[in-house]
Design a protein that fits this description.
It is a single chain. The protein is of the alpha/beta class. 41% of the residues lie in helices and 15% in strands. The protein is built from five helices and four strands; from the N terminus they run E-E-H-E-H-H-H-E-H. It has a four-stranded parallel β-sheet, with helices on one face. The termini are close together.
Length: 118
């Protein structure tokens, strides 16, 4: 399983493999053609309440990790679906909109999926 991360505003590439948008909201200013995703799995993204609370504030990052992991633990049906998808493709790219490439939900999701037992 090779999971990659890519900002929605970076041009798609054949090397991305199967592209999954892992955001609850569609990235601003992008058309479906420009984003070139294979699946929009909005249910895997942080809840609206968590997303609004975090507001990409670096000071809240550590607590955001805990809260988002708890949401994922409680969202087993969608997590299991995502795991099945990642196992069916050689390369899967999680597409996200956040400008912070280090502190974003897609990075946490990647770690969570890679750490989860098969």
């Amino acid at each position: 399983m090779d999971i990659r991360l890519k900002r929605a505003y970076t041009a798609p590439s054949p090397a991305d493999g199967y592209r999954i948008l892992v955001e609850r909201l569609w990235p601003r200013g992008l058309t479906k053609a420009r984003l070139a995703i294979d699946l929009w799995l909005k249910e895997i993204a942080p809840s609206p309440e968590l997303r609004k609370w975090f507001a990409h504030d670096p000071a809240k990052w550590t607590e955001f990790i805990e809260r988002y992991r708890l949401e994922l633990d409680q969202n087993r049906v969608v997590v299991d679906e995502l795991k099945r998808i990642t196992e069916q493709h050689d390369v899967v790219t999680f597409v996200y909109a956040a400008s912070d490439t280090e502190r974003n939900s897609a990075r946490l999701l990647k770690d969570y999926i890679e750490e989860s037992p098969s």
